Amino acid sequence: QVQLVESGGGLVQAGGSLRLSCTASGSVSSINVMGWYRQAPGKQRELVATIKFLGSTNYADAVKGRFTISRDNAKNTVYLQMNSLKPEDTAVYYCNLQRLLPPPTYDYWGQGTQVTVSS
Questions:
Q1: What contacts 106, CB < 8 A, 6 or more positions away?
Q2: Backbone conformation region of residue 111, classed left if phi is above 0, alpha if psi is from -120 to 50, else beta
Q3: Rounded CA gap, 113 and 63, in Å?
Q4: Which residues neighbour 10 within 8 Å (Cβ) at sequence distance 6 or greater?
């Protein structure tokens, strides 16, 4: 079992910054992809950013140039630095760890942390 604990959400004015953190504990395989997804009220959960265990990253178009994902493999922790926040970034942000090895691929999810951006 793997547990994911997120922190760092909150209320911020438009143009401000927040940093989310997510630490994995338990039987964590080092061969994984960690990432952040978000879900706004009435909308489907969507990808924000992912980072593979060797460091390659992927971003949603809506956050490119504003958000930066990083990870510390020694701490099993992933970070999301969010700058130039907009009201449309308001959502519950969920941490994800996708185990690649050993098979089968499996997804773990955190409980979510609220990010609210006021205009």
A1: 98, 99
A2: alpha
A3: 18
A4: 18, 114, 115, 116
Q: Are strands 32-39 and 113-118 parallel, antiparallel or unpaired?
A: unpaired
Q: How far is CA 69 from the centre of its chain?
A: 8
3-state secondary structure at position 73: helix
Q: Among 37, 49, 55, 52, which Cα is nearest to 91's?
A: 37
- CA 87 distance to own-chain centroid: 18
Q: What is the pLDDT of residue 30?
A: 84
pLDDT digits (tens, 9 = 90+) for 1-58: 899 999 999 999 999 999 999 999 998 888 899 999 999 999 999 999 999 999 999 9
Instruction: Find the angle CA(103)-CA(106)-CA(108) to the nearest 5 degrees.
Output: 145
